[in-house]
Design a protein that fits this description.
GO terms for molecular function: mechanosensitive monoatomic ion channel activity. This protein is mostly helical. The chain is built from 8 helices and no strands.
Amino acid sequence: YRKGWTFSVLLLLHVISILFLCFQVSLFNFVFLIAWALALPYAQFRPLASSICTVWTCVIIVCKMLYQLTSIDPSTFSSNCTLPGENETKVNLEELKTSVLYSGPVDPAEWVGLRKSYPLLVYLRNNLLMLAILAFEVTIYRHQEYYRCRNNLTVPVTKTIFHDITRAHLDDGLVNCVKYFINYFFYKF
């Protein structure tokens, strides 16, 4: 149970889940960006960021599911944008006509991150993946805490992967050199 190894795996999973959410650029996903931008440089904020992201993911899933109700009709609050005149913009008229903004009604809920979609599971896939990763992270941390408490172990002092490798072991061989640089990269990362 090396805390450094599991932390690096979980950090990688968080980065992957955030990249999945980057495919859906919206106001909803901005909370994830802010939470992890503050949590990555400061280790004391990581559990808080993980909790915030878990709750926020649940809120997003519920909002997306409620938006699928038949009583919500996006056409009632969608608006049509009028094409600007030739003297009002420097963009070609042909480019403006092909723009999503002027091709039909614009649903403002899409800016927030809501849209009507079928099938719903495909639409919620990234959020459910994020929730599964966050649940996996909590499970690992709780299991580590329980294991250390049961076996009277202390939390490792260094936040590295190989706790017994130091600068003095750098010239002891290729394997120790690689371990040292993995620790150094992990420490800097």
